[in-house]
FMN dependent NADH:quinone oxidoreductase
Amino acid sequence: MARLLHISSSPRGGDSESLRIAEVFTSAYEETHPGDLVQHWDLWDGSLPDFAVGARAKMSVFGGHAPAGAEAEAWAAARRVFERFDSADRLLFSVPMWNAGIPYVLKQFIDVVSQPGWVFGVDPDTGYDHLLAGRRKRVAVVYTSAVWGPHLGPDFGSDFQSTYFTDWLRWTGLTDISDIRYHPTLTGDRDMARQAADAVARDVAKSF
């Protein structure tokens, strides 16, 4: 039995296009993978720890020391978040565009789980090791925006959303990535854009 984990970063509930498309994906996945487990992780639910002390613990680890006291507690809290993320065989992220980038809660998630020995190693001569590589994990990402669109010029913003997040995924070693996009723009046909995004979501889910 495989486990699909949907990690969502929109707080907008029923008004969220990224969550709506993710529901289309998970419904199609459940229909075509009846023995698999599908779970949802709302990053706004308070489960992400503050990482101020954790950042100090990270530097202790980099220095070859075991975190102690409050640092050890923060490191353990971060580890629990990483294990929840890492335990999934399939990952679905729903990512709305915020100010040309990603919601800050998703950046918090990235900063909590991206730790030495968990997500990456580093060698002074060869650079980073991508520790999630070669584990046959698959990733699907729902990218949505309201103003920016791939065919528009810079007056309508820039895409630091998918460029940043895809780069992070590949840096971890997760390279089997499928994108599902909804970018209707201010003057586009939203119904047509929804239908197109839903069709891609279903197609990806069926073979995921």
Helices lie at 17-32, 52-62, 70-86, 104-113, 162-172, 190-206. The chain has six helices and seven strands. Residues 145 and 183 are 5 Å apart (CA to CA).
